[in-house]
Amino acid sequence: MNQSNLSRRNFLKASALVGMGASLTGVTTMAAPVEPSKGDMSKGKISATRPRPTGQKPVNELTTKPLDKVRVAIIGLHRGLTHVVSCLGIEFAEVVAVCDIVDDRAKHAADLCEKKYGKRPAIYSGDEHVWEQMVAREDLDAVYIATPWAWHVPMCLRSMELGKHAFVEVAAALTVDDCWQLVDTSERTQRHCVMLENCCYGENELFVLNLARQGVFGQLTHAECAYLHDLRTVLFALGTEGDWRRNYHWEYNGNLYPTHGLGPVAQYLGVGRGDQFKYLVSMSSQEMSLTHYRNAHQPNGGRHAHEKYICGDMNTSLLKTEMGRTIMLQHDVVSPRPYSRINALYGTGAVFFDYPARLSVDEPKPYGLEAEGSEDWLSPKDMQIMREKFTHPLWKKLEERAKGGGHGGMDFVMSWRLLDCLRRGATPDSVVYDAAAWSCIIETSVHSVAHGSAPVVIPDFTRGLWKTMKPLGIAEA
Ligand SMILES: NC(=O)c1ccc[n+]([C@@H]2O[C@H](COP(=O)([O-])OP(=O)(O)OC[C@H]3O[C@@H](n4cnc5c(N)ncnc54)[C@H](O)[C@@H]3O)[C@@H](O)[C@H]2O)c1
User: What's the farthest any 2 CA atoms get from each other in the chain?
Assistant: First the structure.
């Protein structure tokens, strides 16, 4: 059985899991709430790649029929409401249908659409399987999937099987097996499966991508990235992520949310297009902060008192690429600290660190900067010069329209770009191989942690295509 089935079944009866814990490797720590995972991970092996089934074609250059309007449906209307709002602001998009188990959420989304279009989209609500009827509609091009993690893979697979492109929230899948299912289904159906990694479209991320593409960093050597976000309150919030996200903290010990940090960095380095992840080693600190917070605050009347969390507060992974570069990737959602994705890039010609944005360049003069060298970060004046020269054209084009949109505008920029690619029939900036490569860090990190930080191979979902795949078009947008 694959993890999506396991997870869906088990997470929906989360209350039965309280007080139990098991690791993803199948090494049981207490009475196991889920069957030990089957296949490579329980045997301590993750294979470097898998042969492409006969008859399947790669999707790295998949182009599709151009469309006048891109007709979308959206499942999961909490985070998904942001996608509804973005689509309503895009003249070549039409929200045809909305879906949530919760009637009021679906109705609210439909109200927004009605206000914009003067007509109501179809509403699907009240049942956890009603989405299956929605994705079977004939009048749909793409389905946004913004549901809890356990639903991502089944919703993607069915959408693609029924001829729709799947746009799935982060992470696309939890296990290597499920990542392969996404890859194989995308190839077999020739539908896109794009992970909605909005952080690839942040102003700073696009700036760094453009700097890298324009050669300012010289030869790239190293990157650092993370998801450092104090989610302690959210993890216990009922009616939203607290209903399901905390469960992973008693099931897995590793990086539970790798893609916000890793996606942009992978694009800077051209991972999947000229370079490729090779292996990682991963280490977790002890678990402390979630237990401490739960004990101190007794959230929801103390009903979580028996939960035993196993996910270490800070997980640090080191990834090695085929070209010899290194990436430091961290995950911490329980320490009391301000938000950061680190977002750092090193090259022979420059170094960038985010939070706040800082840049140093080895040879400042050719850029007309006042700086003497790279010992100090560029002054605000020099930084402004670099911003003027290297702000990404996509950001410049959409900045005004993105204002007020989710996450500093990057949610709008992402949807605009993705739907524009689909409208033109062009290959999107990231495809299923990227979704799989960035998401599989969940299982590979858990696996490494469980085996004394042993090196774990990161599968090559492109099956060797990375050597010849062209760079992203995004920098030329
Ligand atoms: N990219 C980002 O910045 C970002 C931000 C927040 C959340 N997310 C991701 O978005 C996803 C959803 O997160 P959230 O915070 O909205 O979670 P949530 O639990 O608050 O909301 C999920 C919604 O999905 C609905 N739902 C659940 N199962 C369903 C089903 N079978 N059919 C129809 N509706 C169903 C729920 O009723 C709920 O309204 C997660 O994957 C999360 O990681 C991404």
Answer: 64
Regarding the beta carbon of 344 and ligand 1, being less than 6 Å apart is answered no
What are residue 358's DSSP bridge partners? 353
Q: Write down the pTM of the prediction.
A: 0.92
CATH for 366? 3.30.360.10
Whether 457 is in a domain gets the answer: yes
Q: Which atom of ligand 1 is nearest to the CA of 128?
A: 31
- Does residue 202 line the site of ligand 1, with CB under 6 A? no
Structural domain of residue 298, as residue ranges?
200-392+431-476
**What are the CA-CA distances from residue 134 to residues 144, 162, 228 (Å)?**
12, 11, 36
Q: What is the pLDDT of residues 389-435, one digit of tens each?
A: 999 999 999 999 998 887 889 999 999 999 999 999 999 999 999 99
Say how many Å lie between the CA of residue 125 and the centre of ligand 1: 14
Q: State the SS3 of 102-168.
A: CHHHHHHHHHHHHHHHCCCCEEEECCCCCHHHHHCCCCCCEEEECCCHHHHHHHHHHHHHCCCEEEE
Give tens-digit pLDDT for 20-52.
223 333 322 222 222 224 333 334 578 999 999
Q: Is the dihedral of CA 309, 446, 437, 222 positive or negative?
A: positive
**d(CA 368, ligand 1 centre) in Å:** 47
Per-residue model confidence as pLDDT tens digits over 270-319: 999 999 999 999 999 999 999 999 999 999 999 999 999 999 999 999 99
Q: How many domains does the chain have?
A: 1
User: Which residue owns the Cα nearest ligand 1 atom 28?
Assistant: 147
CA distance 365 to 285: 44
